[in-house]
Structures are given as structure tokens and as C-alpha cells.
Amino acid sequence: MATVGEEDVSVLGDRISNLNVSATENNEEMARKSNDNDVDLMKSCEPRLWGFETRELYKLALNFYKEKEGKAVHLSYEDKLKLVAFTQQVMHGKCTAENAPPLGVLDMIGKDRRLAWQNLGDISKEQAMEGFIVLLDKLCPLFRTVVEAQKRNFEEKQRLRREEEANKLEEEKKLKKLEEERKKQEEEKLKEETQRRQIQNALNQQTYYQFKVYAEQQYPGNPEQQGVLIRQLQEQHYHQYMQQLHQNQLVIEDQNEEEDEEEEKETNNIQLENMMCKTDGDNDDDNAKNDTNENMNDDDSDEIEDWPPISPAEMWTREGVEEFKQTIRRETGDAVIKVDHGEIVTVRVPTHEDGTCLFWEFATDGYDIGFGVYFEWSKPETNQVSVYISETEEDEDEEEYEPREDLESGSVNGNIRPKRKSTPPPISVIIPVYRRDSQEEIYAGSHQYPGEGVYLLKFDNSYSLWRSKTLYYRVYYTRQGFIKNN
């Protein structure tokens, strides 16, 4: 909605305030000439006031003036004459001898009002309404507050009306859709009923004479009972026919599915044979290359052990971080760890001979932390859970050398042989390390034992340069036959 520009309103108000309608002036022609510029300004402005139509806003302004004048609005005599002049111009138009009421000799107020009315000249009723509104707004700032409240009320009614229309339109669409669905269902039922009658009539024509002979044998000389029996037999025959038809259709569908499966198997077999042929050809070439390079690959001749596949882990979150922390503090203090900035804490959890599944839960104070799960394929030497702290991943992967005595090797040139490098056990990634918002929710998860080994639960704070994290965690395993309920 458009509003009046502040400059136009202020200029119009200033020009209106310059209207001189004093009762002491006798030269009406001079007053009329002095106000020609005011009339021209009002004709040229034609302000669109505060988003209202002029007539609606004029009615609102007139009612406000009548109710508040002398109470919340206190105007001078000159201002009242100007407002009355605008109302006369709206009601009767230009002041003429025909539409002006007669005045008494001593009616000074009437003469002042007549003069103020004449000073408006021949402005239109629309312009007179606008002049009344602008002047009242200038004289009484409370009027604008009332208008804004009315505008909000009007806009709210408009909004409710639009919502009601939209809801009504949506309801009509739903009803129309339901009606279309109902008609469609009725048409389908009618179609099914028509087909049923056609099938039943065709069956009745085929079996009528057979059933009639049977009915005459059952009820000789009784046509009424014969008709009842014939109808019963026809109805039973129809239902049996439809059941048989349905069973035949199911058999046909099963046969089609079997044929599709057989075709798919044949296609897969053909593709497998093609791959086998291609592999055999590649193997011949590889065997020739291997014979040539056999001596070069003696150091790499150890076979890589094919580890069993690992099932994916399950992870979920739940609420109640503070209660969980209190429980961990109360149960054991060893499960509360401070992970300094730049550190990685690895919790080693060996598989238990009586367990089948590992469970874990953890939360932190204030900030998130990285978390991941790995599995080390090594035989656990103990069932105890241990914690290791390292600066970075590289520190964890540092090569470790163990001194071993070799009586046969002796020394080389009087020097002791170097410590021999130990082969680290293979490690499988179950859950990669990602940052978890464990300060907001409890992160929990489980994993079925892939075999015998050690789980590595990594809590990574290496990305943090300044902040340390307080970790609360709990790990446990389940026995055979345990069923987890998420």
C-alpha cells in the first residue's frame, strides 16, 4: 500500500495553515486570490493517504474529530473554521448563494465559517476530503496512531479473509478430488458388476439345462423348489469358476517369474563363462611373465592372508548427556579421560571369549571430538581394556624394534647386529574417524565380533590447537544369545 510522502504532507499542511479566515477581514476577493495557490497545490498533490481510499479515511477522520474534539483534541478557533470549511465543501461543493444557508445579522461565527468556505474556491470534494485529513493530522498527531491501528486491523482482516478463501479453495479441491475418486470407484464397481453379470449370464446359459434336469430329479412336480435349487447351483458354479480363474492366473504369473529367473540365470552363466575364458587367457600371459620374473619376486612371495569380511557397525544417538556423565563419574573414574589439544587417545578393547558383540557409549564436555573404530587382527594377551595416548597418527605408526638374541648370527665385524623390525598386525577400518557433536548427544554403537582380535576406539583431538576435551566413555560386550533392542 502506498503512503503520502512526508514532504508533500508537510507542504500541504503549511499551505493550509496559511489560510486566513479571520472575522476582521472584509475583503473576500483578496482572501480568495491569496488562497488560489493553496487550491492549486491541493489539486496537484492528490495524496494517496496511508494506504486507504480517500473516502474511507475521511470518514475515519471525521468520526475521530467529532469524538475527540474538546477531549483529546484541543484546536484554536481558526483551525476549527478551516476544518468546518472542508466539511462544507465535501457536503455541498463550492460555496454559492444557492447552497449557502442564510445568515443572521449578528451571526459572526456563521460569517466566519462562510468566509472560510468561500476561500476554498472550486476544489473538488475529493480534494476537500484530503485537505481535511492532512490538516487534522497536522493539528493532532494522535490521529495518525489511530489510523495506523485501523490499518493494522484492516490488514489483519484482509489476511484472515485471504486465508479463509485459501482454506475454502483447498477444501473445495479436496472435496472435488474425493468426489472424483468416489466416482472413479463407483465406475470401477459398476464395470466389475457388469462384467460379473455378463460372465454369470454366460455360465447360466451353459449350465441351465443340466441343472434343470438335476432339479427335476430332486424335486419332481415342484417347479418352485426346482427354481430355487437351480439358482443355488448356478451361484455356486459361478464362484467356483471365478476361484479357478484366479488360481490359473496365479499359476501363469508364477510360470512367468520362473521363466524370467531362468533367463536371468542363463544370462549370468554366459557372462561368467565369458569372464572365465578371458581370465584363462590372461592367466596364460601372466604365467609366462611370472616365469620370467620369478627370481625378481622372491622377496614378495609371501601370500597375503584373506581376512574374513567385516559386517558394518551400527551407531545411534540419544539424549541425557548430563545424566550419563554423572553415571560414569559414579561408576568409575578411569572412564573419564582428559584429551589434550593435538592428542589422540586410543582405547584398546580385546574381544572376550564369552562375547559376541561390542557396545560403546561416549560424551564430552563443551566441544566435539573425532571418533572412529578399528579392528586389530591379533590374539589378545589379556581381557583388560587399556588406554594409549599419542600426539598424532604418525606417532602411532612408528616402527618398533625389539632386541632379539640370535646365537647363530653372532656379530658382524665385532659389531652387534641391529634390532630386528617386528611385523605389525593387520588392522581393518570399521568406522572412519569423523568429528562427533558428543557435547550435545550421547553417541553409542555396536559391532558384531568379526573374529578374535582387539578393537581400537580412537578419540581424536589432533585438529584442536588450543582446547582440551574431557571424555566420558563406557564399553561392554554381550554374551551369546543376547538381542539388542534399539
UniProtKB/TrEMBL annotation:
This is Golgi resident protein GCP60. The keyword Acetylation applies. Pfam families: ACBP, GOLD_2. It comes from the Eukaryota. GO terms for molecular function: fatty-acyl-CoA binding. Residues 255-305, 390-423 are annotated as: Disordered. Residues 54-145 form the ACB domain. InterPro entries: Acyl-CoA-binding_protein, Acyl-CoA-binding_sf, FERM/acyl-CoA-bd_prot_sf, GOLD_dom, GOLD_dom_sf, Golgi-PI4KB_interaction. One of its GO terms (cellular component) is Golgi membrane. Residues 255-265, 296-305, 391-405 have a biased composition (Acidic residues). Residues 325-477 form the GOLD domain. Keywords: Acetylation, Coiled coil. Residues 146-203 form a coiled coil.
